[in-house]
Amino acid sequence: MNQQSQKVAIVTGGGSGLGLATSQKFVNEGIKTIIIGRDPKKLENAKKELGELAFPISFDLSNLAKIPELIDGIKKEFGKIDILVNNAGINMKKNFLEVSDEDFFHVINTNVFSVFAISREVSKVMVEQGNGSIIMISSMAAKYGIPKVIAYTAAKTAIEGMTKAMAVELSPLGIRVNCVAPGFIFTAMSSKALDADPERKNKVLGRTPMGKLGIPADVAEAVYYFATSSSDYVTGTSLAVDGGNSIGF
Fold first, then answer.
1. This model's pTM is above 0.90
2. How many domains does the chain have?
3. Containing structural domain, residue 133
4. Domain at 233, CATH number
5. Residues forming the active site
6. Rg (Cα) of the chain, in Å, rounded?
7. Distance CA 15, CA 45 (A)
8. Crossing angle for the helix pair 198-206 and 188-195, nearest 10 degrees?
9. In what order do the strands lie in the sheet with 175-182?
10. Residue 196 within any structural domain of the chain
11. pLDDT value of position 226
């Protein structure tokens, strides 16, 4: 594959969970994949797993002022950016009445402000190229009310809105913007949380028509669809990968 035709992707939070599964899919398909994360050890392990097409960058995305410099450096090194997957995010479980202003800001800063800032900077590169695909990662929290995650819910609902607004402005310039909304996916973190709360686990499975949790690869496949020419005429959409959870009763 010649250098020019080989795609270049950025996956934020690419060192673990859904981000790692997405990065794995990308490198398997021959895409140069830049994985951005805060934890150098996690990134190092991911690099070992993913191989030579993975390029780890340790960076804290809540440092908004440094994002333009980060993207400029990537553009200089790789020559282009074809795909951006905004996967990095944090969650916080707390009763609504106990969430402080600082708590709320912390989640919104990482999950909304940084997504906005990196998308803006990458879009500048993509506009120059005349093409690109941006994929947002939303959540079931944007589809219905989930208790004890007010900041996360606000953030992911903002992401769904941003997807539409960005798509309307950027699609005429050759950049597609879409969103994947994972349901309850089996990861080390989620299985631990659900096993510790059998009532919640039964509720999750009870309202999921397919009767099981998804796996990270399910989400990675959906992201890959939006990243490639298979979805050439698709923009501004949100795809639930949730076993029917969002329509389950």
1. yes
2. 1
3. 8-184+216-240
4. 3.40.50.720
5. 152
6. 18
7. 8
8. 110
9. 54-58, 32-37, 8-12, 83-86, 132-137, 175-182, 238-241
10. no
11. 98
